[in-house]
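Look over both lines:
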Amino acid sequence: MPVKLITDSGCDLPKSVTIRYDIEVIPLKVFVDEVEYLDSESIESHQMMLAIDKGVEVKTGQITPNTYEAVFNRYLDQGYDVLYLSFSSDLSSSYQSACLAKKNLEGKGRVEVLDTRCASLGQGLLVLDAAKSLKHIDSIDALVDYVKSRIGDVNHHYVVSDLKYLFKGGRLSSTQYQVGKLIKMNLILGLEDGKLLLKDKKRGKKKSYQKLLSNLSGKDLSNVTVGINYGLNTDDAEYIRSEVEALKPKEIIMHPIGCAIGAHTGPDYVGLFFQEKS
């Protein structure tokens, strides 16, 4: 059976990439001033970030089991086996919703739901790796095994300068937020086994970005795709890009952070992602 690869908009991949590799992306929901939008479909990141910057209230919403069921069923009807690669289940309930949809479709066809333990372009790089591997993997079982073997190779690193968005989204405690705000620290965050972790704190963007880039130090990037995303701070992202380019990676994917994750990071954010060679 041919395999249809599906993910959600938490992957933050550019549309040019998802179209090229025939990846179906189901949009997460975003509520801007209580109006519902679909991430990267009816609202783009830049629009949402400008609204956040003006103090407009933004919330995120999950994909419903009914939505998953409808998408999965559409491809089952076309004769595909379906593999859905989800946003980390520690950061979103999308994985659980997709599992419910899978259960409802039992007997209709083959559906596999895999928790990537990743987010943003880290998830995106894993999805892209899976899509490229379909050239030489011809069964859903082999593809699931391959993706599972690559999850632990994905690196996520973020610099967040304004902590209030992480606090509002429940990613920081009140104490962490107040202390960070008081000493005017930038947070260097990472993702480990699907959970957001504080890696370091630096005063000033220059030191923060040096710390971010130090994660690539000494690595052979000749066969590695590096992902960079950002909020409204395009100059900072271009600086990171120029530093990464000097290390001669195989490819750089640079794209604004999507609405679903950007609502929790705020406009002053830069992320750096790469997948170690396995």
